[in-house]
Amino acid sequence: VLVPHEPPLCRINEDQKVALDLDPYVKKLLNARRRVVLVNNILQNAQERLRRLNHSVAKETVRRKAMLEAAGGYPQGLPGK
User: What is the pTM of this model?
Assistant: First the structure.
């Protein structure tokens, strides 16, 4: 595919003698991406641990309520929920 504006742009770039080195910017972007991925993984792991903890707490709550009800109700001084 021929691009009609390619040669003039190349000549302009050569005339200006502006050599943009993009490597430092690419490295910064890759480093930022790596850190974002790392933080995302940490957050996902924390969210999964919280989900499992919440599930365990709910199971324990049901188990304790069942034990209390089987023992004849809530003990004196504790409000029933």
Answer: 0.55
Structure tokens at 73: 């109700």
Q: Give the pair of three-digit tokens for residue 77.
A: 């001084």
* Dihedral sign of CA atoms 75, 78, 79, 81 in order: negative
Round to whole Å and give the CA distance between 25 and 74. Answer: 65
Q: With b meaning 16 or more CB within 10 Å and e meaning fewer, what string describes 3-36?
A: eeeeeeeeeeeeeeeeeeeeeeeeeeeeeeeeee
The pLDDT tens digits of the residues spanning 21-70 come to: 889 999 999 999 999 999 999 999 999 999 999 999 999 999 999 999 99
Residues 6+ apart with CB under 8 A from 80: 73, 74
Side-chain-side CA neighbours of 78 within 13 Å: the count stands at 7
